[in-house]
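Progress report, Aim 2. The chain analyzed during this reporting quarter is listed below.
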Amino acid sequence: MKELYLVGGPMGIGKTTACRAAKSRLQNCVFLDGDWCWDMNPFQVTEETRRMVMENITFLLNQFLHCSAFDHVLFCWVMHQQEILNGLLSRIDTQNCRVHLVSLVCAQEELEKRVQSDIQKGTRQKDALGRSLAYLPLYESLNTCKLDVTGLTAEETAEKIILSPGEKIS
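Predicted structure tokens for the chain:
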């Protein structure tokens, strides 16, 4: 049975870094970051681009799940609304896999520190802090395993993602 990890959390919390660390710990593992499907200039959020991104993500995840070379599929994206998770799950073939739904959360001060660090490094724009902080409380209402990453390294977070409870979703 394959393992599918859907890892959400606000911008800057460490999803990508933790998933990269998890990928290096798991044999026969592939990793997709949802942000890669939005990497465009200029950044455009329209109904057309939203639809395209969702179709690209679900196509790639299904391809990875159907490929015999992979036992573990890691996917991270903001996923701050239950409708986003439900939409992905309705389009992904989870017949032969256990699904791990994980939301990374942390103390507000920790998130501020992480995002400010990214802003100083030039990897995020200044407006990311407000958006990230606004998204943080939205994860509490999701039907996911909440993983508090306050004070955790990427490697510690990766280990907790790997050990997160999964379930068979039909």
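The two ends are 13 Å apart (CA to CA). Residues 28 and 45 are 34 Å apart (CA to CA). These observations will guide the mutagenesis work planned for the next reporting period.
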